[in-house]
Design brief:
The chain has helices spanning 7-24, 34-74. It has two helices and no strands. It has two domains: 1-27, no CATH class; 32-75. It has 75 residues and is mainly α. It starts with 6 loop residues before the first helix and ends with a helix.
């Protein structure tokens, strides 16, 4: 289990390792066990979910900044 204080650091290192394996051809499905193929597919799904969440978070942050600007104009 990852410790919360280094969760993203540790995961980023592991994710880069996975990306390198995919890029080099090491993680070609025919070379992977059934479990690893499923995990690879799930990893891609999780990465897409994270991208979607970050886009939503960025949008919310931009909206909040816009709201703060509007508030300052009203003063």
């Amino acid at each position: 289990m990852n410790m919360s204080y280094c969760r993203f650091q540790n995961t980023a290192i592991d994710l880069q390792d996975c990306a390198s394996a995919i890029e080099s051809g090491e993680a070609v499905d025919k070379k992977l066990s059934r479990e690893e193929k499923q995990a690879k597919k799930r990893l891609v799904e999780i990465c897409q979910d994270i991208i979607d969440m970050m886009e939503y978070e960025d949008q919310r942050e931009a909206e909040n900044l816009d709201d703060e600007d509007d508030f300052e104009l009203d003063e």
